[in-house]
TrEMBL record:
It comes from Flavihumibacter solisilvae. Residues 22-146 form the Beta-hexosaminidase bacterial type N-terminal domain. Its EC number is 3.2.1.52. It is an enzyme of class 3 (hydrolase). The lineage of its organism: Bacteria, Pseudomonadati, Bacteroidota, Chitinophagia, Chitinophagales. The active site is at residue 324. This is beta-N-acetylhexosaminidase. Keywords: Glycosidase, Hydrolase.
Length: 535
């Protein structure tokens, strides 16, 4: 009896010690510290089954870049031959598919074993392992881990400012390190169209360029006189899709409709409700120009665009935006009025739902699913009067709702209507806001599950969105200043169970691996990025 108690005390004490000293971000679900350490040497080998070839090569390259170790990759060995090795394995036990991203990491004095319920799980185990390495040594530990949410997203808005392949790859690398698995790519907006559509070349010939850009802040009416342009060819996108997939990141493209459409309308004026030439806007903010959803030719255009987009991105989910639609042009259009009369549509908000449901049906016919900002539930935005915004029609239940604004009760209402929800509430998750508005602690304490949501419906919260809107980030330096370290806080919100979060532990952990790693990339973290502002 005494020996059993001593063993239990040792295990519990070890668990407490590791909880205090752990530097892994996002924080693992279960950890038990061991005694001693494993030392990486030039003789250490990485063994793996054929299905984990990508993960083995990734780890091999990682150790070479970060620790100057050139390790051999080999097929699995007999159990007697595993001393000194890093073993990558797939869990074949019954029930292993219940959480495909779960993993176990075991470090002993003699070997390291990373076991995942899938290749993604093994990959996440590798991310935890890399954060434990100090001077070629890894402390002995046992970790069992799995994410709290399956949708752990980072959004980059390139509709406003084009950043390019290298910057996007760097974001993918940091997402991988932080176990984030969805890259929400905002590719079209009023300020620019950034994806090549072969059937409509004017979208990039004209729509990807603007003659100057507004600077400062909203409605500043100050401009930089610097032309801005850029877009991704389809070949470039294919390369980035593979780069992301190798890191178990799914890319969700966003093609804005029916609003935020100025760049498209500047390219093809017949797309607009007014059917008049416009330029790609040089100022930011909500624009009045919207697609003419009463015109069958416009709907055909959008279907054509979606066809090319669906071929580029294998995610089977397409984001259609749908936010901040100003109804004035629809209200002034005789063609739209006739369409609404013929189809028994009472309000502009119902017209938007009618249009959105049509896009949803089209995507479903192609084996895809639609996601949109929560405006698509009915005319939410305050620039429309209450009569225009009232709705009777219902949005397709298959649509995923990305909640960004309004009363958080909207999340519960959307779930109770049958929708899956991604919680991206602006006040906590918009990284374009400065550190006075959203200090690190505020980002960290975000809870994606509303208190009002019944426990048996909480699985409908797929996860979180982390947004990097681009209006006021013309440079990569400014973008990185706003992203890091808050993206790490959002990663822990998405991965770590709410009851296991600890802000003091999190901030201490930043200094162990992430902050030095970012510094090597040329990203230095300043005090105001870590500390709450003085009130």
């Amino acid at each position: 009896m005494k020996r059993s108690f001593l063993f239990l005390f040792t295990v519990l004490t070890g668990q407490t010690i590791f909880a205090q000293e752990s530097t892994i971000i996002p924080y693992p679900a279960e950890t038990v510290a061991g005694v001693g350490h494993f030392t990486l040497t030039a003789n250490t080998r990485i063994t793996h089954p054929a299905r984990l070839n990508n993960e083995a090569k990734y780890l091999q390259q990682l150790l070479k870049e970060e620790h100057q170790l050139s390790l051999q990759v080999a097929k699995p060995q007999s159990s007697k031959s595993n001393a000194g090795n890093i073993q990558l394995e797939l869990n074949t036990a019954a029930g292993a598919t219940q959480n495909s991203e779960a993993y176990a990491l075991s470090v002993t004095n003699s070997n390291i074993k990373v076991t995942g319920n899938s290749a993604a799980g093994v990959f996440y185990g590798i991310q935890s392992l890399r954060q434990l390495i100090k001077n070629g040594q890894i402390p002995c530990v046992t970790i069992n881990d799995a994410p709290a949410f399956k949708w752990r997203a980072f959004m980059l808005d390139e509709g406003r400012y084009f950043k390019g392949e290298n910057e996007v790859k760097q974001i993918f690398d940091q997402m991988a390190l932080l176990k984030m698995n969805v890259f929400h790519w905002h590719l079209t907006d009023d300020g620019g169209w950034r994806v090549e559509i072969k059937k409509y070349p004017e979208l990039t010939r004209i729509g990807s360029k603007r003659r100057m850009s507004e600077t400062g802040t909203w409605l500043s009416n100050v401009f930089d006189s610097i032309p801005h342009e850029g877009f991704y060819t389809q070949e470039q996108i294919k390369g980035l899709v593979k780069y992301a997939a190798d890191r178990h990141i799914t890319i969700i493209p966003e093609i804005e409709m029916p609003g935020h459409a100025s760049a498209a309308i500047a390219s093809y004026p017949w797309l607009g409700t007014e059917n008049k030439p416009i330029e790609v806007p040089i100022s930011f903010g909500i624009k009045k120009d919207i697609f003419n959803v009463a015109n069958p030719k416009v709907k055909a255009f959008l279907h054509d665009v979606l066809d090319e987009v669906m071929k580029l991105f294998p995610s089977n989910i397409v984001h259609i935006g749908g936010d901040e639609v100003i109804y004035d042009q629809w209200k002034a259009s005789g063609e739209v009025a006739q369409y609404m009369k013929e189809n028994h549509i009472k309000t502009p908000a119902d017209l938007q739902i009618d249009f959105t449901n049509g896009i949803s049906r089209y995507l479903e016919q192609k084996g895809h699913r639609m996601i949109g900002w929560n405006d698509i539930l009915g005319g939410l935005h305050g620039n429309n009067d209450s009569t225009d915004a009232s709705t009777k029609d219902k949005l397709s239940q298959n649509t995923i709702i990305q909640f960004w604004t309004g009363n958080p009760e909207i999340v519960t209402q959307a779930v109770m209507k049958g929708h899956d929800v991604v919680n991206a509430y602006w006040d906590n998750t918009y990284l374009d806001y400065d550190y006075k508005h959203t200090p690190l602690s505020k980002a960290y304490r975000f809870n994606p599950i509303p208190a009002s949501l019944p426990a048996d419906q909480r699985h409908k919260i797929l996860g979180i969105g982390t947004q990097m809107w681009g209006e006021w980030i013309p440079t990569v330096e400014r973008m990185n200043y706003l992203i890091y370290p808050r993206v790490a806080a959002m990663a822990e919100v998405a991965w770590t169970k709410q009851e296991q979060k600890n802000f003091e532990r999190f901030t201490k952990s930043l200094d162990s691996y992430l902050v030095p790693s970012w510094k090597k990339m040329g990203i230095s973290i300043k005090p105001e990025q870590l500390n709450d502002p003085v009130q």
